[in-house]
Specification:
The chain is 23% helix and 20% strand. The chain has 15 helices and 20 strands. The strands form five sheets. Strands 1, 7, 8, 9, 10, 11, 12, 15, 16, 17 and 18 form an eleven-stranded mixed beta sheet that branches. It has two domains: 294 residues, 3-Layer(aba) Sandwich (D-Maltodextrin-Binding Protein, domain 2); 190 residues, Dipeptide-binding Protein, Domain 3 (Dipeptide-binding Protein, domain 3, Roll). The termini are far apart. By secondary structure, it is α+β, with helices and mostly antiparallel strands.
Length: 565
């Protein structure tokens, strides 16, 4: 089957069945806790999931992906297809028809001009937009009238839904952000903290890395929603504390991303106040390998920019590091049934899950032999190998979390057994995943040799996600340290193959190319995949309407949440 055939009518475009509420705000206050606190409400200025999640309550995309991964119309009348005329036969244009009558929270009309402005905002050459890959391949956006958006691509584009689809690519208001283009983007504090939106809620108070207070949007398109009048969104703390606040004490109604030992979660759930929810999408806990030199002796505009890394781009080194890791044990102690061993960057959907590699068996002896054969040996007897006179001494950073620190400790020990010295560092998650261009501690800055975190993508087509490894997507001073190519991986063959993917219609061929791109990134030192993670969150037993979603924001349908009697 070709993707063009899918676009001719098989796209899941059925409107979601709405829940019935007595009146807006009738269920009082909703209490949400994210132990990784958002630093901004503008996801274009941060690659952190916490910012994407929080902002999804306020600013919205044209389409969303439901809990099955199916694309759904959100601010538009229908999903464009070739059959309904929304996508041109040559696959070079897509035309969106906005739903009439949608208002911004300030009462002004939501129009096509806002959509076009969002594209111009993110693609400005000096913007440092964290979501730039969503707009790859677009040559122009036209707005023939207030409710029509015509996107033209520079080549046939079989999957034209990345731009303005899912929580990573929402629409911002042109009037509010008019003076925030390019280098001015991060200076617009009021706009970035208090965006005007079309979503169910409006920010009334934003405290970076702490608390967000929101109230029901008085101009929301459904007069009966949301059921909650306000939200207290608490950020910070740790995962175990967030879990306890819902499952044991009942202080909060919803807790996200519970990276807590499975036996501890099970015991907490036994109190009966809350229940755990798990779903699997494409989330992978991985170790990113810095392809540039993070040496502190370099200047701030050279560190993590100059290539190559002194030793991490040697296949013997990164393959030995991977061989030394016991992924089975990591998944078991970290996630139990919520974790699976993976060798892949893209383990889902299943069609994109490559079977090229096997990595479920740790082999310390083979790792040592590999390094010996490459001539990377310990010449001075201190237990640390050297490559070209440079000791294999690694700074390994991640966010502060009990499971991640367990992973770090085990991996440090395994790497010591193959002659690699490792210094561990953990950084508060709100800082590590924040978007502060001036902070040296963000995962985008990557002032370390390796770093560990989880990442994922919206929807079930990974084309835009695979664009993260394109050479020109590396964070740097010129992009205000924004960008999605965190490892600074650069391979011309990869870029060329991705361009082929972007122009390929056949679904089977797209999946084949996707698997090849996965294999190129993993086998050429972009990362070491560890665990295919299920998303685990908790909700109060009284909270209804939650549809756990690994393909979009977990808060994607918060307008439908309510409280039972």
């Amino acid at each position: 089957m070709s993707l063009k055939t899918v676009l001719m009518g098989a796209v899941a475009a059925t409107a979601l069945a709405p829940a019935a509420f007595a009146e807006r705000g009738s269920d009082g206050a909703l209490r949400i806790i994210y132990w990784q606190a958002p630093s901004t409400m503008n996801p274009f200025l941060s690659g952190g999931t916490k910012e994407i999640e929080a902002s999804s309550m306020v600013i919205e995309p044209l389409t969303r992906f439901d809990e099955t991964g199916a694309i759904q119309p959100w601010l538009v009348e229908e999903i464009p297809t070739v059959e309904n005329g929304g996508i041109s036969e040559d696959l070079t244009t897509i035309t969106w028809k906005l739903t009439p009558g949608i208002l911004w929270s300030d009462g002004t009309a939501f129009t096509s001009a806002d959509v076009k402005f969002t594209y111009e905002y993110c693609t400005h050459p000096e913007a440092g937009c964290a979501q730039i890959t969503k707009f790859e391949g677009i040559s122009s956006i036209e707005t023939p009238d207030d409710l029509t958006v015509v996107i033209t691509f520079d080549a046939p584009t079989p999957y034209p839904f990345a731009a303005f689809g899912g929580a990573e690519s929402p629409i911002i208001q042109a009037a509010q952000f008019a003076d925030c283009i390019g280098p001015a983007a991060p200076t617009c504090t009021e706009q970035n903290f208090n965006p005007i939106g079309t979503g169910a809620f409006v920010v009334t108070d934003f405290r970076p890395n702490d608390v967000i207070t929101l109230e029901a949007n008085p101009n929301y398109r459904d007069p009966a929603k949301p059921a909650f009048a306000s939200i207290n969104f608490k950020g910070g703390g740790d995962a175990i504390g967030a879990a306890r606040a819902v499952l044991e004490t009942g202080e909060f109604d919803y807790a996200w991303n519970l990276q807590v030992a499975p036996d501890v979660l099970a015991e907490m759930e036994g109190s009966g106040r809350g229940e755990l929810m798990t779903s699997f999408g494409p989330s992978v806990e991985r170790i990113m390998l810095n392809n540039t030199n993070p040496d502190p002796a370099l200047g701030p505009d050279e560190r993590a920019v100059i290539r190559p890394h002194p030793f991490l781009q040697d296949p013997a080194v990164y393959n030995a590091m991977s061989l030394a890791v016991d992924r089975v044990l990591l998944a078991e102690i970290g996630y139990g049934a919520g974790g699976q061993v993976t060798c892949n960057w893209v383990p889902a959907p299943a069609a994109y899950n490559s079977d090229t590699f096997t990595c479920d068996t740790q082999d310390i002896d083979a790792a040592n032999a590999m390094l010996d054969e490459a001539g990377i040996v310990d010449t001075d007897g201190d237990g640390v190998r050297e490559k070209d006179g440079v000791p294999l001494s690694i700074l390994f950073q991640t966010s502060t979390n009990s499971i991640r620190q367990d992973y770090q400790a085990l991996i440090k020990e395994w790497w010591s057994q193959i002659g690699i010295e490792t210094e561990l560092r953990n950084i508060d998650a709100s800082v590590f995943f924040g978007g502060d261009a001036g902070s040296p501690d963000t995962f985008q800055r990557f002032y370390a040799d390796v770093e560990m975190y989880t990442n994922t993508f919206s929807g079930t087509d990974p084309q835009a996600y695979l664009a993260n490894m394109l050479c020109d997507k590396a964070p740097s001073p010129s992009s205000q340290w924004q960008g999605e190519n965190i490892s600074r991986f650069c391979m011309k063959e990869y870029d060329a193959l991705w361009n082929t993917l972007a122009q390929t219609s056949d679904l089977d061929e797209r999946a084949s190319i996707g698997r090849q791109l996965n294999d190129m990134a993993v086998s050429n030192g972009a990362m070491i995949p560890l665990t295919h993670r299920g998303d685990i969150s908790a909700k109060a037993t009284s909270l209804e309407g939650v549809r756990m979603n690994s393909w979009d924001s977990e808060l994607w349908n918060i307008a439908d949440w309510s409280r039972s009697e």
